[in-house]
Every structure is written in C-alpha cells, then in structure tokens.
Amino acid sequence: MSFQxxxxxxxxxxxxxxxxxxxxxxxxSVGLAVRSWRHDRAGQRAxxxxxxxxGNVILLGLEVLVAADLVRTVAVAPTVENVVILGVIVLIRxxxxxxxxxxxxxxxxxxxxxxxxxxxxxxxxxPTATSIGPGAAPADSSPQGEAPRR
Length: 150
Known about the structure:
Layout: H1 3-40, H2 43-76, H3 80-105, H4 129-132
Helix pairs in contact: 1-2, 2-3
C-alpha cells in the first residue's frame, strides 16, 4: 500500500467519524431536549437545549470533516485546485462556526466581555468581595508567604 492510498484511507476514516459525530450528536441532542421537556414541561427550554447541544455537535462535526479534507488535500492530491477548494471549504466552515457560535452564545465574541454577571458556557463568574455582599472580607490581603491576620 502506498502512502497516498494510506492517507486516502485516513481521510475516509475521518469522514466516517465526522458523520458518526453528527448522527450520534443529533440523537443525544434530541435525548437531552426530551429530558429537559419531561423535567419541566417547558417547550421553549427544551428547544433551547436542542439548539445549543446540536449547534455544538455541528461545530465538532465540521471540524472533523475539515480534518478529512485537509488530510486528503495535503497528503493525497496536493494540487493548486485542491488547495483552493480546501481554502473555500475552510472559509465556509469558519463563517458557519462563527455564526453558530453567535447563535449558541447569543452574543458576538467581541461583546462577550460586556455581558458580565451572566452564565456563559456553564461557568459562573468568580465572586469578588464586593459581589458577595456588604461587610464581606477581602480574600487575602496578607503579604505573600504570611498567614492572614484576624
């Protein structure tokens, strides 16, 4: 088996993995949405769960499929035409990823910093002394290496 044949098989393997990710991700996303709907009977919440989870699956699937195209273009048939096609595919994937990210997050990446105090990607902001409440003590104002004084 030649190197190019081996790389063609690797590219096909990545394509299969990409398709499996998309199909399995759809099944898992629907399952999460159904579970959400059964839990609180809120159709809007279940719809959001479905959109967010499947949006992330699409992003992952696109990444895997681009990897397949990259292997095929670079290792199997590195012609100028194939490189241009790969460039167009990567550009389209980038635009899709960007728009999906905005759709999932609900805010453009450069505006994320302005949305403080909200949960983003399942993370909560780290509380500060001023956000804990009145009379809260600062975390540790002692010099490095010393125990805090009380």
